[in-house]
Amino acid sequence: MTPHLLFLFAPAGQQADGRVMGAFVVQMLLIVGIVYFLLIRPKVQQEKKHRDRLAQLKPRDEVLTVGGIIGEIVHLKDDKVTIKSGESRLVIQRDRIAEVRTGTPPEGTAAS
Questions:
Q1: Residue 103: enclosing H or E segment and its boundaries?
Q2: Predicted model pTM
């Protein structure tokens, strides 16, 4: 917001002395800070975790695509991922993976 717009939100009927405007500016900064910490920052952190998970994909991981297809990763190449779902193999873009469900445990270990 520009400083000129802040005057439009100033309390009406009071003198425009420095204390009133100072209190108003502090209130606006608090509102912006609350919005940042409650809405913006968690979303950015969630997106960063998702990008990290996508970067760590490996064969045999089970994934859920944006379209709702659940499959097991067979092959990775740059931004393309080949998944096996049922009897079909699909090639999808890496960023179309909505969720990494689980990795299949190595043979010889018990799944808990």
A1: strand 97-103
A2: 0.64
